[in-house]
Amino acid sequence: MNNPTLFRYGGIAAILSAILSVAFPVFFLSGYEFLATVSFIIASLLSLVVLVPLYLDLQTDFQQLSLTALILLVGTSILGLFFDDPVAAPIIWGLLSVGTGLGYALFGWLQYRSSHYPNGMGLVAVITGILIVLSGILVMAGVNPDTIAGPIILMITVTLVIWLGWLGWYYLKGRSANPQLA
Fold first, then answer.
1. Would residue 158 count as lying in a domain?
2. Which of 9, 24, 83, 130 is 20 to 30 A from residue 137's alpha carbon, by CA?
């Protein structure tokens, strides 16, 4: 799929989602819960827009795996809008986190294996996915989310923002035919 407009929209959505992903913890930690919630919802919805060109680009080489990653991320993102409190529903939140993490890790692995994306971009998505899976497992294991929230959310936020920003920039500048320096 080589539709420049679709990739441009995906790039804009990725950069806006990255900005809002930074705004969410800042608002939350500052006590502005309403703004944190709004930034989380908008960032989640924008991330769905980012997934469309990513899926369409990767599905030519990895049809079933890219569809699996898309279903995991779309499903868990939508459900995550309704179950965002790890204290109230730790098992549900943990399972959604594991599904989200697996989706990011799978998309990252496919990016890494694809000749359309820089290898580093895929590795950042894999690391983001692993961190999200880890947070879900820890919450399901009964670890108090407040004790892991700071370090893991910070690492997830940093890696997610790097991936979204890189992907957005990559889509906006126009994808090169072979970005890997083999």
1. yes
2. 24
Domain count for the chain: 1
Q: Could you tell me if residue 134 is inside a domain?
A: yes
Q: Is residue 93 part of a domain?
A: yes
Long-range contacts of 135-141 (CB under 8 A, 24+ apart): 135/97, 135/101, 136/93, 136/94, 136/95, 136/96, 136/97, 136/98, 136/100, 136/101, 137/94, 137/98, 139/86, 139/90, 139/93, 139/94, 139/97, 140/90, 140/91, 140/94, 140/95, 140/98
The residue range of the domain holding 19 is 4-173
Does the residue 179 lie in any domain?
A: no
- Are the CB atoms for 48 and 57 separated by under 8 Å? no
Half-sphere exposure of 10 (CA within 13 A, CB side): 23
SS3 percent helix, strand, coil of the chain, rounded to 5, is 80, 0, 20
Rounded to whole angstroms, how far apart are CA atoms 117 and 114?
6
> Tens digits of per-residue pLDDT, 111-163?
999 988 999 999 999 999 999 999 889 888 888 777 776 688 889 889 999 99
pTM over 0.70, yes/no: yes
